[in-house]
UniProtKB/TrEMBL annotation:
Domain Polyphosphate kinase-2-related: 84-299
Name of this protein: Polyphosphate kinase-2-related domain-containing protein
InterPro entries: P-loop_NTPase, PPK2-rel_1, PPK2-related
Membrane-crossing residue ranges in chain numbering: none
GO BP field: polyphosphate metabolic process
Pfam families (UniProt xref): PPK2 (PF03976)
Species of the source: Bifidobacterium adolescentis (strain ATCC 15703 / DSM 20083 / NCTC 11814 / E194a)
Gene Ontology MF term list: phosphotransferase activity, phosphate group as acceptor
Length: 319
């Protein structure tokens, strides 16, 4: 048995014991310890290994690499399953606090080239989450009413409510990258958006909204493999769009544009994480680890009862 498998066994044992604790507080404490043990399967935490630094070059990242994780696909999928159950626990906790007025909430920004696995991450990492408290939105090119407003208008409409998680498949960052590459707007317009977005995200985090920004780094060879699979499989024809090839032809332009985005918008409050994504099981495990720890580190407790329980029981006996 691998060391990762042994650790995951210990995590499951601890989680089972946490369900039989004498108090709610003890149960939460045991769950937190189990989460810390779960994180120990990483040789170094993804927050340290994959966070963007000013000397990081997106073009140098190997999409096929698996930094910090020495296990295989089976290990990763088991990790994701356990981690997902804990994400669901913390999600319910955050939602309950949101109902009672807490401003704690979470925004996840998923970016990456076509076929980098954004949709698969949503399906796998949040597989055990409660739909009540989660909001997914995919952003395409602005159209209709969106064109009548500032570029952040449609973003603000999809932000998480108190206690909720919002997942953005593409985001406001497209409003820098796309006009830069395709020259659809004056340079001074999209250049101003770096600072505007930093102010916008700073205001969000100051008001209790945690932000996780992830760029999935897929190699050109892996992208090509996925494109060919879409052309070979009738059930995937709908996924293929000729415009994907135009973006592929401008690969270097995209990498240069995203490099500047990371340099100018990876902040202490809302850093970017650059995640190798050729191995989908790895990128999903990374996102699960980042998400679970972000929620755990909010250090939330269950909201207290705000009424006299005995009086409520007496009233119930009369109804």
């Amino acid at each position: 048995m691998s060391s990762i498998a042994k650790t995951l066994n210990k995590v499951e044992d601890r989680l089972e014991k946490s369900e039989n604790c004498d108090s709610v507080a003890e149960g939460l404490a045991n769950a937190a310890k189990a989460s810390e043990l779960l994180s120990s399967v990483w040789t170094l935490p993804p927050t340290q290994l994959l966070r963007f630094h000013h000397d990081t070059k997106v073009s140098d990242i190997d999409g096929d690499s698996t930094p910090g994780f020495d296990g295989n696909k089976d290990d990763a999928e088991r990790f994701i399953s356990i981690s997902s159950s804990e994400i669901a626990r913390y999600q319910r906790l955050m939602y309950a606090n949101g109902v009672k007025g807490s401003h704690r909430r979470l925004l996840i920004v998923l970016q990456g080239m076509d076929a980098s696995g954004k949709g698969g991450i949503v399906r796998h990492v949040f597989s055990q989450g409660d739909p009540m408290g989660m909001h997914y939105h995919g952003f395409g090119a602005p159209k209709g009413e969106e064109l009548d407003h500032d570029y952040l208008w449609r973003i603000k409409r999809e932000l998480p409510n108190n206690g909720w998680i919002s997942i953005f498949d593409r985001s406001h960052y497209e409003d820098i990258v796309m006009p830069r590459i395709y020259k659809t707007q004056p340079e001074e317009m999209w250049q101003a958006r770096y600072d505007e977005i930093n102010r916008f995200e700073s205001q969000l985090t100051a008001d209790g909204c945690a932000i996780i920004k992830i760029f999935l780094v897929v190699s050109k060879d892996e992208q090509k493999r996925h494109f060919l699979s879409r052309l070979d499989d009738p059930t995937k024809y709908w996924k293929f769009d000729p415009s994907d090839l135009e973006a592929r032809a401008r690969w270097d332009d995209y990498m240069a544009a995203w490099q500047d985005v990371f340099l100018r918008t990876s902040t202490e409050q809302a850093p970017w994480y650059l995640v190798p994504a050729d191995n989908r099981w790895y990128s999903r495990a990374v996102v699960s680890e980042l998400l679970r720890n972000t929620l755990k580190n909010m250090n939330m407790i269950w909201p207290p009862l705000e009424v006299d329980a005995d009086e409520m029981r007496r009233q119930l006996d009369t109804l």
